[in-house]
């Protein structure tokens, strides 16, 4: 299993690397398009702002590479948001691999950022969601979110519903941090490792 | 439903976990990594590592333990102490911390909060506030350099004003440490936390004073804080996290089992 974590220069790369290491996979952290294309699976991490992250991907000339991948690609947190068409955080065009838009959270007066452990709902029948139930808690930290749509694999509710996991074809993303969500988060990463298209 | 967070705080000095009473007379509790791992397995929702040597003695502190924690821990953790620049924060986040918390350096140079927000996003930026109730003036005041008795000093800030200031500058979370209560296990400072809750639009974490399970129920029910931080009751085994969680769930508080 050759897993490449795209080196976005974002902050949570080590945590993601260690999370896979705990599952027995020694990932490669790289921004080399050749390595990324040759990987069995690709992970797009991300912490920070969509604007900065897209600028970094552009600098590294990785936009085309990521858009043309055929193997499973998983985005985490900001990495998930980058998979959509557009983000209002900095008003920036994203990778457009999964239809959707990143908007400020509609939290109905609840405090933002949405920070902490929350439950999932409307969990879909997808390889990534195997073993998940509505009583599982996962760790979120964000102020922007992707709305519920036909591409949602699971939702979360915080003032209103938003997409906790999205997916289309070979591409999927999790708004929460599986690398920081205990055993439940590890299950998502394990499902990703076992995901066959 | 978003769960209230239980957050063991590990005060770190020279790579060891220590605990003092009212910020003084520190005794060694144990090594960082095994303690961190134990808490994660016991059901802690998050961990805070507070390098109490850092801000007060001005030297460059070895933070390689952050990476060792990130390797074994699968819950979020925050590192506090001695982070004075964007570069300091960047190194710690790169080693695998999820958030960084600033206290004295933000008091010395409040723009630090704006800079951290700009570079790493609001969600990474925690501001720790050491607040002491001054009986003479009847007001809560912010203190700095609390890691070192000889340098601890009152600032010009009233706690309420400083909270408003750090929010304006882009803090993503506030940890309010009520110094009068710290280490004495007489309960959280509910009155102060309630008054800060009113003006705090981001997550607010209560710190200082936990002694019994009922103290946690009280602070969640009466001050509506997002998390409760505690040290000695966990380190000394006075409260087991699993039992505390069961009690809080029985009390109707939203908790991750």
Automatic annotation (TrEMBL), chain A:
The UniProt entry, under CDD domains, shows:
GATase1_IGP_Synthase
Query: Cross-referenced SUPFAM superfamilies, in alphabetical order?
Result: Class I glutamine amidotransferase-like (SSF52317)
User: Where this protein primarily resides, as one coarse class?
Assistant: cytoplasm
**EC code(s) of this entry:** 4.3.2.10, 3.5.1.2
Q: Which GO terms describe its cellular component?
A: cytoplasm
Q: Name one Pfam family in it.
A: GATase
Compartment(s) where it occurs, according to its Swiss-Prot or TrEMBL record: Cytoplasm
Q: In the UniProt entry, which residues are flagged as the active site?
A: 77, 177, 179
UniProt GO molecular function: glutaminase activity; imidazoleglycerol-phosphate synthase activity; lyase activity
Is Lyase one of the keywords?
A: yes
GO BP terms: namely: L-histidine biosynthetic process
Q: Which UniProt keywords apply?
A: Amino-acid biosynthesis, Cytoplasm, Glutamine amidotransferase, Histidine biosynthesis, Hydrolase, Lyase, Transferase
Catalyzed reaction equations: L-glutamine + H2O = L-glutamate + NH4(+); 5-[(5-phospho-1-deoxy-D-ribulos-1-ylimino)methylamino]-1-(5-phospho-beta-D-ribosyl)imidazole-4-carboxamide + L-glutamine = D-erythro-1-(imidazol-4-yl)glycerol 3-phosphate + 5-amino-1-(5-phospho-beta-D-ribosyl)imidazole-4-carboxamide + L-glutamate + H(+)
Q: Which pathway does UniProt place it in?
A: Amino-acid biosynthesis; L-histidine biosynthesis; L-histidine from 5-phospho-alpha-D-ribose 1-diphosphate: step 5/9
InterPro entries xrefs: Class_I_gatase-like, GATASE, Imidazole-glycPsynth_HisH
- Where does the record place the Glutamine amidotransferase domain? 5-193
Q: What quaternary structure, including any partners, is listed in this protein's UniProt entry?
A: Heterodimer of HisH and HisF.
Function noted in UniProt: IGPS catalyzes the conversion of PRFAR and glutamine to IGP, AICAR and glutamate. The HisH subunit catalyzes the hydrolysis of glutamine to glutamate and ammonia as part of the synthesis of IGP and AICAR. The resulting ammonia molecule is channeled to the active site of HisF.
Cited PANTHER family: IMIDAZOLE GLYCEROL PHOSPHATE SYNTHASE SUBUNIT HISH
Name of the protein this chain belongs to:
Imidazole glycerol phosphate synthase subunit HisH
> Where does this protein come from, organism-wise?
Rheinheimera pacifica
Upper taxonomic lineage: Bacteria, Pseudomonadati, Pseudomonadota, Gammaproteobacteria, Chromatiales
Gene symbol? hisH
Automatic annotation (TrEMBL), chain B:
* Family annotation (Pfam families): His_biosynth
Protein's GO biological process: L-histidine biosynthetic process
State the source organism's domain of life: Bacteria
Q: In which pathway does it act?
A: Amino-acid biosynthesis; L-histidine biosynthesis; L-histidine from 5-phospho-alpha-D-ribose 1-diphosphate: step 5/9
The UniProt transmembrane annotation reads: none
Q: Where in the cell is it found?
A: Cytoplasm
Ordered alphabetically, the record's keywords are: Amino-acid biosynthesis, Cytoplasm, Histidine biosynthesis, Lyase
State its Enzyme Commission number(s): 4.3.2.10
Catalytic class of the enzyme: lyase
Q: Give a Gene Ontology cellular component term annotated to this protein.
A: cytoplasm
Q: Which residues form the active site?
A: 11, 130
For this protein, the record's CDD domains field holds: HisF
Catalyzed chemical reaction(s) = 5-[(5-phospho-1-deoxy-D-ribulos-1-ylimino)methylamino]-1-(5-phospho-beta-D-ribosyl)imidazole-4-carboxamide + L-glutamine = D-erythro-1-(imidazol-4-yl)glycerol 3-phosphate + 5-amino-1-(5-phospho-beta-D-ribosyl)imidazole-4-carboxamide + L-glutamate + H(+)
Where would you say this protein principally sits, based on its record? cytoplasm
> What GO annotations for molecular function exist for this entry?
imidazoleglycerol-phosphate synthase activity; lyase activity
Q: What does this protein do?
A: IGPS catalyzes the conversion of PRFAR and glutamine to IGP, AICAR and glutamate. The HisF subunit catalyzes the cyclization activity that produces IGP and AICAR from PRFAR using the ammonia provided by the HisH subunit.
Q: HAMAP family attached here?
A: HisF
Query: What is stated as this protein's family in its record?
Result: Belongs to the HisA/HisF family.
Query: Which PANTHER family does the protein's record reference?
Result: IMIDAZOLE GLYCEROL PHOSPHATE SYNTHASE HISHF, IMIDAZOLE GLYCEROL PHOSPHATE SYNTHASE SUBUNIT HISF/H IGP SYNTHASE SUBUNIT HISF/H
Assembly notes: Heterodimer of HisH and HisF.
- Name recorded for this polypeptide: Imidazole glycerol phosphate synthase subunit HisF
């Amino acid at each position: 299993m050759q897993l490449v974590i795209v080196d976005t220069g974002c902050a949570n790369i080590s945590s993601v690397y260690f999370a896979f290491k705990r599952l027995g996979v020694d990932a490669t952290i790289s921004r080399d398009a050749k390595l990324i294309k040759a990987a069995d699976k690709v992970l797009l991490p991300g912490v920070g702002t969509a604007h900065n992250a897209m600028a970094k991907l552009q600098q590294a000339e990785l936009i085309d590479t990521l858009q043309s991948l055929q193997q499973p690609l998983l985005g985490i947190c900001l990495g998930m948001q980058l998979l959509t068409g557009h983000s209002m955080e900095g008003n920036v065009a994203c990778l457009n691999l999964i239809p959707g838009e990143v908007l400020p959270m509609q939290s109905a007066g609840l405090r933002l950022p949405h920070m902490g452990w929350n439950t999932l709902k409307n969990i879909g029948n997808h390889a990534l969601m195997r073993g998940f139930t509505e009583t599982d808690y996962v760790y979120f930290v964000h102020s922007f979110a992707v709305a519920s749509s036909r591409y949602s694999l699971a939702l979360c509710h915080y003032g209103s519903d938003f997409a906790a996991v999205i997916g289309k074809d070979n591409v999927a993303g999790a708004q929460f941090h599986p690398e920081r969500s205990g055993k439940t988060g590890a299950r998502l990463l394990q499902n990703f490792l076992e995901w066959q298209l | 439903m978003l769960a209230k967070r239980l957050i063991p705080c590990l005060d770190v000095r020279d790579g060891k976990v220590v605990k003092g009473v009212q910020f003084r007379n520190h005794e060694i509790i144990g090594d960082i990594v095994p303690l961190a791992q134990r808490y994660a397995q016991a059901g802690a929702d998050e961990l805070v590592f507070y390098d109490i040597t850092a801000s007060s003695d001005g030297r460059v502190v070895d933070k390689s333990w952050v990476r060792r924690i990130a390797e074994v821990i699968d819950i979020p953790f925050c590192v506090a102490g001695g982070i004075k620049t964007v570069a300091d924060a960047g190194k710690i986040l790169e080693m695998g911390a999820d958030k960084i918390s600033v206290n004295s350096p933000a008091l010395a140079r409040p723009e630090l909060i704006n800079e951290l927000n700009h570079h790493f996003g609001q969600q990474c930026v925690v501001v720790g506030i050491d607040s002491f109730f001054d009986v003479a003036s009847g007001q809560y005041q912010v203190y700095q350099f609390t890691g070192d008795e000889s340098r601890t000093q009152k600032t010009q800030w009233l706690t309420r004003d400083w909270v408003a200031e750090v929010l304006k500058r882009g803090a993503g979370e506030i940890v309010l440490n009520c110094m009068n209560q710290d280490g004495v296990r007489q309960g959280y400072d509910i009155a102060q936390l309630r008054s800060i809750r009113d003006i705090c639009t981001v997550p607010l974490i209560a710190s200082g004073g936990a002694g019994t399970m009922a103290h946690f129920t009280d602070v969640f029910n009466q001050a509506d804080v997002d998390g409760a931080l505690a040290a000695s009751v966990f380190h000394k085994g006075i409260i087991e996290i699993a039992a505390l969680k069961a009690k809080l769930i029985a009390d109707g508080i939203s908790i991750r089992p």
